[in-house]
Amino acid sequence: MNAEDFRRIARGMAGAVEGAHMGHPDFCVNGRIFATIHPDHRFGMVKLTPDQQERFVREHRATFAPENGAWGRQGCTSVRLETADEDTLGEAMTLAWQNTATTRAAGRLRVKAARATRSSRKR
User: Suppose 41 and one of 3, 4, 76, 105 were both cysteines; which one would form an S-S bond, judging by CB atoms 3.0 to 4.6 Å apart?
Assistant: First the structure.
């Protein structure tokens, strides 16, 4: 795999939009980043949950590793592109997309519910 393969898979997710963040490509859904390509184009990042990250790191040690610091502890996972295969990267990317898309949607539903509750109290 290479950076263009990573980009193709990320852009294939429903509603995915490519942008740039801190000088390197990122991929968003509903305005939130779910994946990035590192500036060196040898690595990517997918935003997994800590449990998902642990599984990918355990099962594919040569390809996946936690990102450094707090981001890594929260599930941001580095992907070594030269050792990645399309199916495994596709699974990780899909999970990252789902995590981000559903988190944002759930947040909007909570906000709408809170607004509705406040509106009904004002009456």
Answer: 3
